[in-house]
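Two quick folds needed for the group meeting slides. Do the first one here.
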Amino acid sequence: MTSKADHRMWTGKQAGLIGIAILLLAGFCFGQPTVSLSPKDGPPTTALRVSGSGFTPYAQLDIYFDSQDQALAVADAAGAFNQVAIQAPKSAVPGAHWVSVIERSRHLAAQDRFQVSVDWTEYHTKDMRRWNPYENVLNVDNVGSLQQLWSYHTADYVYSSPAVVKGVVYIASFDGHVYALDCGTGTKLGSYADHFRQSSPAFLNGVVYVGTYRGDVVALSRTGGLLWDDSIGYEIESSPTIANGVVYIGSYCCDVYALDARTGGLLWSYHTGAEVFSSPAVADGVVYVGSLDGNVYALDANTGTKLWGYATGGAVWSSPAVAYGAIYFGSYDHNVYALNAKTGALLWSYTTGWAIGSSPAVANGVVYIGSNDHYVYALDARTGTQLWNYRTGAMEEGASPTVANGVVYIGSEDHNMYALNANTGTLLWSYQTGEMIVSSPAVVNGVVYVGSRDGNVYAFGLPKGMAPQPPKRPDPKTLRPDFSLKPVSTTE
């Protein structure tokens, strides 16, 4: 008989592709030197350490990122150097870039590849703000040219929000599956069957975490094996947040749970007065979460001890955002709130025209949030003053905005996906799907990923030839040193 774990393994003819390593290109060199990078991939502004060997002893070595000479190292008596610091430029667009190490004598050179890419690992993203500070492809000038790159049809509603990691989109559907889709093509790499609905997957260190409607939190390997399955016993609509080896999640039974990310073992739980649909935000050792009992709670992340609570006048579906020493969230009492993150003291509130189930995005001193009065609001994060609003045809309570490179992205009950100017609220682009959009978008590497109640997962990007591309692998013979650089010390 097929075991429970076997029955619920990833399926799909391409599931094995998820674990296949990226093909490495051989380094260009005039002799036999080698160069290595740590890390090998990451977002723009990543700090890299460059090491090498096989160079001429005591040679001066220029270290380039693409064509920019960033550092001058000196080889030791064995022709090696270690851990020289350079940085991927903020302008480095997604794709393969090259680090070149060239002797000033021009006798020897070697290269290694650095992959610029950004991951969106969970509902909040890592910073609890639903903001991608690294996006450098889509902007206010070109987002109006977005077009559908692909769509993948599931068998039911897609309320879940996507996680995007290492070229794979992970997203849940009301058809009971979590899907792994190829970022570039939308091809199904695999699926995992359980009672999934609205909980959004979270990803960390090769593991996918997600809650089920039958009351389990499951952990899956990147290739789809069941690592653990912890039964809470009540429906889960909350999305997991992972911090310091712990999975935090809310449930329909009114509790917030902390589970060991490695084993699924229960570390603690905290009982609120009603269902917890809000997704926890974790920052500076504190878990912030809303409850339908009308309260927002601050809990010690290690013990679950209540640090403070704040009572609003309505249910709190909204998931808090943490920034600037404050937490921001919406309530069904029609208000957006800002509270002191340490004490829970009210900093300000702003009243909209109806209930708020949307979770805020916070970027560049501005709070962006949707309201069931059909408006998207931009509020000053310090004072709560309205900066602008934009009226959609309707606003679903769960749809939440994402901010990237001066653009606010949000779905709506009127079936549309919107892109708005983050400074002015001006409409830059919209796309109509077949049903309302509750899913909150992930915006990474020049692509917008989102689900729709029409059962589809969508990817939107710029037309071919319009998106900026990384420069070609440089010929070391063409690179010119910066003679103003001073030699840097290396770590043996």
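Then this one, please, same format:
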Amino acid sequence: MINPNQEAALAAIGLSPAMRRHIEQFNSSHGDLPSGPPPQAPFLMRLVELQRDALTLHDGWQTHLARALPALHGNFNADPKHDALAVGDWVYASRDAHAQWWVHACVPSMTQLARRHHDGRDKITRAVIVSNVDTALLVMGLDHDFSLRRLERYLALARMSEVQPVVVLSKADLCEPELSQRRLQEVCALLPAGVQALALDLRHTAACQVLAPWTLPGQTLVLLGSSGAGKSTLSNTLIGHGVQDTGPNRAGDSRGRHTTTSRSLHPLPGGACLIDTPGLRTLRLDADAQTLGSVFEDITQGAMQCRFRNCSHGDEPGCVVREQVAPERLRNYQKLQREAQRDSLSLLQKREQLRQWKLRSRAHRARERLERES
């Protein structure tokens, strides 16, 4: 059960009424928590930082360093997607006779932002970014960091996870007003209904007032974006003091350095909490073709009007999608579809695909050689 004396303190680190009901359902379905080294009853805490095997937990009043029991994974999470601990998870932990805190169980998350990680060879794994978030602040600079195609990936990531996205455009002070206005209009034209784009000075406290609708008590927000986009600056502004290090961008292309090296959760003055994350070098979506179609509604709806049911929106006649969707957006969607299809292949299928590519490449080189000799 949730300790009544602890409940008010936990609300400051994201224990919303919906999450409270979710935790109570978990408790009732699993019965008593397991026994282990700690002699006392486990406390409900939130995972606020993760460094390899070192866990930092928050009980609502203070943080504690902890370790996870080996029996944690698999015994309490029926869904294998939720096996990996991530910042934002709610866990049960207690302290043993040596003052060491141990995590006994992890409550299955209500929402998860996850991506696919490729090891450069054949292995693809699912990597959880954060858990139990309500809003994703997608931070993108209006300078050289500006990329509509990358923004489409972040929007798809949030919407597939049923997390409300909000686009935050930074560094308007570094761009000409005409350029900033034009890029803001391009972003707004890209967004689905109900998603807002905000151009803010992330160093000014006025940003807190603009983002107030998403920072209500019990809400959890996560900052996502590339390095140097301004995530740590916005984090410090919302928290009210300098918690995260910030650094200058590289001259010439405005690329940022990884001043944030780990994900960490911080309570906000208004009762919400914020998870800051390092910049993602690559974002490979954890999705299949059908899921991608659900977040690119304009393409899937247009495909229903194409002449051919299996239209690939290439050079087929009667393709409505090519007429209605911007070419860059369509190419990005097709690229995401190819990535999803490749990730779903088995090892044998990938090797066969690679063999076919090599055969085609050799045939192409042979034709070029014949043309040169003729």
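Slide caption for protein two: The first strand starts at residue 43 and ends at 51.
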